[in-house]
Specification:
There is one protein chain. The protein is α/β, with parallel strands linked by helices. It has 15 helices and 16 strands. The structure holds iron/sulfur cluster. Iron/sulfur cluster (SF4) binds next to α13.
């Protein structure tokens, strides 16, 4: 998977198209500083994230000309000899965050109009005996088409990774063959798909190059392509269904359950209960812990953090970073679950709506709410979401498990000074510091 992290390894000079290994050694020749290159990388990665959300929205019939216009302006601004101004480039980077909010908004509207507003839903994580297809990626329209085509075919459908919130949309959850969720974050998929006997459909990014052991059962659609795997261009998933029918059946294996679907309409539907619990000092603090999961041990930070969150605090989460801890049973406070899965990464829009509504109720700014954001970042959409939060003026965000490598020390210093960005460190000490705020 091409990520912001991995792409950094082949960062190019925007002036001369040479690689910038070891930092820009051509300053004075091409006139670009590493800091300007860093901001341009941030902008380009952010634009990729905006493009993903805007594309999904367009598929649902939602278009924002202002977002489209900005994509052109911003890409043009990264062109050779166009923009050598750090302050202006920083402005474009933050505007990218504003445009991402607009893109996430129309995507949310498209999803809700097409599939209905998500409702909190329990999702089994075991498997039931039978032939099956697992769907990974992010595209709900692909999921809808597959569910329509698998009706009455004797094939079950499971979600994987970021498709989990499909279970919460009324127009999708009504299909009886949508039976559960299999697996977790994108980076564990090689192990998980190796153990999956059925067909696999990858709808978007975050598909990894498959192992030979299961490659013949992988199908792609939309923008996702893998060399040697069958690509479905027209949402006619018959080849996927036939592959599932010809593959071994899944075993009957009991599992646990996950709960998803806490869209902002669901959370704000019980806003009076939440406000009453805050006023009665039964809820002391809210944490938003989530984002794009990063492979490796660094991600354990988020599990340790959530495990240590005191019982009078609520954790909101989204995106695949939640798989680090969403198996934990945190219980509830006055009927309000202490772990609220808002949905996919683009549902950061819902988190922003909830934070804004709470700020209105308590008549304070979002930065004055008892709310701490603890983000895990990895790929381009996470960059776009971080830029959105910064553009909204949200401060003191903790970000980890490592800092974006394309951010130079000087640019980091600007972000720390302007926005109080805090790199994650020790989960317990970070939690104590957040609660002491
Ligand atoms: S949340 Fe981010 S890393 Fe995870 S599957 Fe979605 S885009 Fe990929």
């Amino acid at each position: 998977m091409a990520t912001a992290e991995t792409t950094q390894a082949t960062m190019f000079c925007y002036q001369c198209s040479q690689t910038l290994e070891g930092g820009c050694t051509r300053v004075g020749v091409c006139g670009k500083s590493p800091d300007l290159a860093s901001l341009m990388d941030t902008l380009i990665f952010g634009l990729k994230g905006v493009a993903a959300y805007a594309h999904h929205a367009r598929e649902l019939g939602k278009i924002d000309p202002e977002v489209d216009g900005f994509m052109h302006e911003a890409l043009f601004a990264t062109l050779t000899n166009v923009n050598f101004d750090i302050a202006d480039m920083l402005g474009l980077v933050l505007k990218c965050g504003q445009m991402n909010l607009r893109a996430m908004k129309i995507l949310d509207e498209g999803h809700v109009e097409h599939f209905g507003a998500p409702v909190p839903t329990e999702v089994p994580t075991g498997t039931r005996a039978g032939r099956a297809i697992v769907v990974t990626g992010h595209d709900m329209l692909d999921m809808e088409a597959l569910l329509k085509q698998t009706e009455g075919r004797g094939v079950d459908v499971y979600t994987h990774g970021e498709m989990l919130p499909a279970h919460a949309y009324p127009a999708l959850k009504k299909f009886k063959q949508l039976v559960g969720n299999y697996g977790g974050a994108w980076w564990v998929q090689k192990k998980e798909f190796d153990a999956w006997p059925g067909a696999i459909l990858a709808t978007t990014n975050c598909i990894l190059i498959p192992r030979p052991t299961y490659k013949d059962r992988v199908f792609t659609c939309g923008v996702a392509h893998v060399e040697g795997c069958t690509h479905i261009a027209d949402r006619n998933f018959e080849p996927v269904i036939l592959k599932a029918l010809a593959s071994p059946a899944l075993p009957d294996r009991p599992g646990g359950k996950l709960v998803t679907g806490f869209h902002h309409t669901a959370i704000l539907g019980v806003a009076d209960k939440i406000v009453a619990a805050v006023k009665a000092e039964k809820i002391r603090h809210f944490f938003l812990v989530g984002g794009c999961d990063t492979p490796g041990m660094g991600g354990n930070y988020y599990r340790e953090f959530v495990k240590a969150v005191p019982e009078d605090c609520v954790v909101l989460t989204l995106a695949c970073g939640k798989y680090r801890f969403n198996d934990l049973d945190l219980g509830s406070i006055d009927g309000i679950p202490r772990l609220l899965d808002i949905g996919q990464c683009n549902n950061a829009y819902s988190a922003i709506q909830v934070a804004g509504a709470l700020a209105d109720v308590f008549k304070v700014g979002v930065n004055d709410l008892p709310l701490t954001l603890v983000l895990t970042w990895f790929e381009q959409k996470a960059v776009a979401i971080l830029l959105t939060l910064l553009a909204l003026g949200i401060k003191n965000i903790r970000i980890g498990p490592c800092l974006p490598k394309f951010i130079t020390p000087n640019i980091l210093a600007i972000l720390v000074e302007k926005f109080g960005l805090i790199p994650t460190a020790d989960p317990i000490k970070d939690l104590e510091a957040a609660l002491a705020k």
